[in-house]
Amino acid sequence: MNFLQIDSENLGAAASVAAQLSDDSKLGQQKASSAAIGPSYSVASGFDQMGTMHGRFIKDGSGAAAQVLQDLSGELDDIHTNLNRTSEAFQAQDDTAAHALDIADHGGSTHTSSYN
């Protein structure tokens, strides 16, 4: 017989990692949004346009680094929440099964049946 074992400590550790990665993504998004790159990058001909273009890639639009980091942070927040809820659900299921076994060990019934 095969058994599936869920380690709630590992789920909690994974949730903590997801939360830390989310925080790091938020910090990166804030830094990208406030990056001082634009036409003032250089007064040399051509470099001002390069600064403007790089600034757009970092700050503006749906594919910009700041937006990607913001989206990533939201996904990581969801993963963190879901891992915590999964861990809580497994723990509740474990507690319920343990309670049912305790009742059965003391001679009680863990369910009622309409069949007699």
Descriptive account of the structure:
The structure is a single chain. The protein has 116 residues and is mostly helical. It has a domain of 61 residues. It contains 3 helices and no strands. It is rod-shaped and about 90 Å long.
What attributes characterize this protein structure?
116 residues, mainly alpha, 3 helices, rod-shaped
Determine the fraction of residues in helical runs and give it as a percent range: 55-70%
Rg is 26 Å
Secondary-structure element order, N to C: HHH
Q: DSSP strand (E) fraction?
A: under 5%
Biggest sheet layout: none
By DSSP (H or I, 4+ residues per run), the number of helices equals 3
Distance between the termini: 31 Å
DSSP summary, beta strand count? 0
- What coarse outline follows from CA principal-axis ratios? rod-shaped
Which whole number gives the mean pLDDT? Answer: 86
Low-confidence blocks of residues: none
Structural class based on helices, strands and sheet pairing: mainly alpha
Structure summarized in a few sentences:
The chain is mostly helical and 116 residues long. It is 69% helix and 0% strand. The chain has helices at residues 8-33, 47-59, 65-105.
Write the layout of secondary structure elements.
Elements: H1 8-33, H2 47-59, H3 65-105
Protein name: ESX-1 secretion-associated protein
Organism: Corynebacterium yudongzhengii
